[in-house]
Design brief:
This protein is of the alpha/beta class. The radius of gyration is 16 Å and the shape is globular. It starts with a helix and ends in a 5-residue tail after the last helix.
Length: 199
């Protein structure tokens, strides 16, 4: 784990515990999915750092390329394993970078909805999982969009629920097609939503 990433994650983890009493349910499942595609619901700008802090090993992220226009901030994002992506169309450079990261054995966080305001499930999760033959780890995050209410609260906290991995064996016989990419992405999102009850 690079030193800057380790410092950022450790600091975030401390703040989450001290300010928002965060809780990770079924944390042992994270260890079973090292090198997997981590998928989660997306309700806040804080979802990537919070989920990254909950994972005990180094992972990579995606972010819109506009965030990299400022050179200083862009360099920080790159040190945190963030891959820039052009959301206006198929970004071959970003797709190649994601596949390379996954093939190297590192985990990657993806949001099936694409953005916080996304209303449709994007096929990217399915595409990357089928192409790289990686497991998918569903995670549900709660209250990251309500930080003020969780601040030093006795009743509310940031909660991260980790699901059972969707193993490659489940979809290993699926052909590479747009239909199957979408089908697998929809299935992954369904598994995320099933974690809402804390199971």
């Amino acid at each position: 784990m690079n030193k800057f990433y380790n410092f950022a994650v450790s600091s975030t983890r401390y703040l989450m515990k001290f300010l928002w009493r965060y809780e990770v349910l079924h944390k042992e499942r994270i260890h079973k999915a090292r090198g997997a595609i981590i998928v989660a619901n997306h309700i806040s700008w804080f979802d990537p750092p919070f989920i990254g802090a909950a994972v005990p090993y180094e992972i990579a992220f995606l972010a819109k390329e506009e965030l990299f226009k400022n050179k200083f901030f862009g360099n920080i994002l790159r040190k945190l394993n963030v891959i820039p992506v052009n959301r206006r169309g198929a970004d071959i450079k970003a797709i190649t970078a994601v596949i390379n990261v996954l093939n190297s054995g590192k985990s990657l966080l993806l949001f099936p909805e694409g953005t916080r305001k996304g209303k449709t499930i994007k096929p990217g999760v399915g595409l990357f999982a089928i192409k790289t033959k990686k497991d998918i780890l569903p995670i549900y995050i709660e209250n990251s969009d309500n930080l003020t209410s969780c601040l030093f609260s006795a009743s509310k906290k940031i909660k991260i629920v980790v699901g059972e991995p969707i193993e490659y064996d489940f979809f290993k016989d699926w052909e590479q097609s747009k239909e199957n990419y979408q089908k697998l992405a929809d299935h992954a999102y369904q598994k995320i939503m099933e974690l809402k009850s804390g199971n």
